[in-house]
Amino acid sequence: MTDDKAIVAAARSVAWRDLAAMRRRDGLIECLLPVPWLAAAWTCAAFALWPLALTCSFMFFLVALRLNHEAIHHNLGFGAAGHHRVMHALSMVMLGSNHSVAFNHLRHHAHLGTERDIEGKCGRMRFWRVVAYGVRFPVECHRETWRRGGAAWRGRMAGDLALNAVIPLLAWSTGSAVLLYHLAVTLVSQCCTALFAVWITHRSGADPAPIARTQRNRWVNRASYNMFFHLEHHLFPGVPVSRLPQLAARLDSAAPWIAAGTGRVIGRTAAIAGARPKG
Question: Using one digit for the tens of pLDDT, what is the confidence trace for 134-144?
Answer without folding.
Answer: 999 999 999 99
